[in-house]
Design a protein that fits this description.
Blueprint lengths: L4 E5 L9 H5 L3 E5 L14 E4 L3 H8 L8 H5 L2 E4 L3 H14 L11 H10 L3 E4 L2 H11 L12 H13 L5 E5 L11 H13 L4 E2 L12
Parallel strand pairs: 1-2, 1-6, 2-3, 3-4, 4-5, 6-7
């Protein structure tokens, strides 16, 4: 196989014994506070962050996130949430979800400043990626939701352009459970469909040898 192995590692349960396989990938993408480090290996090339609301504020405040081993070794930080999209959601959320009053607060500039100061690349997942993902998820009858999960946004973004036709995209640590306003059941069905099409693979205890492709 001539392409790269791109490993997208969520913060859910990782198969036992997967750490070495994850660390041998060409690109490893983790999320937010990188709780996957440990049983999910150590290598971290890209950290994808929720750049709005409380998660962003927590990461940027103080030095714990900035000084973590995973963030220190990452060469890129990706802001998953389009400021334009979230600004457009604010008025509607104030009516439907008043408890999410700070959900759309944008901290993208904070992540950009951090990456500039530390000599890394900062990238914002484009608005078009969010909108296409919403359309794709609609085929899987999602229950009412606020936004797709950050993990699903990154999967869709990687498949739409970051990965080439020769690359193998592998997922680990995706249980498709969590916050009630993410459409996890539809996301699971969508990922299963992508796997059936051969566009990605889920890492399992028996798939330590990835040399044969998807």
């Amino acid at each position: 196989m001539s392409g790269r192995t791109i490993m997208i590692v969520g913060n859910g349960e990782v198969p036992e014994g997967a750490a070495a396989t994850i660390d041998t990938a060409d690109v490893v993408i983790r999320f937010n506070d990188c709780r996957s480090v440990g049983t999910g290996g150590a290598r971290t090339d890209i950290v994808a962050v929720c750049n709005t609301g409380r998660p962003a504020l927590a990461m940027l405040g103080g030095g714990r996130w900035k000084n973590s081993a995973a963030v220190r070794q990452a060469r890129e930080i990706w802001s998953v949430r389009s400021a334009e999209k979230f600004a457009g959601m604010r008025a509607a959320l104030a009516e439907t979800h008043p408890d999410l009053d700070d959900f759309c607060d944008d901290y993208t500039c904070g992540f950009e400043s951090f990456t500039t100061a530390t000599g890394r690349v900062h990238r914002v997942v484009p608005l078009a990626a969010h909108e296409q993902l919403d359309r794709d998820l609609s085929r899987f009858a999602p229950t009412p939701y606020v936004v797709p999960s950050s993990g699903m946004v990154v999967i869709a973004d990687v498949l739409s352009g970051f990965a080439s036709a020769d690359d193998l995209v592998v997922l680990a640590g995706f249980g498709h459970v969590g916050w009630e306003w993410h459409p996890f059941a539809a996301e699971r069905r969508y990922v299963d469909a992508l796997a059936a099409e051969g566009r990605l693979r889920r890492l399992s205890p028996s798939s330590s040898d990835l040399s044969q492709g998807a």
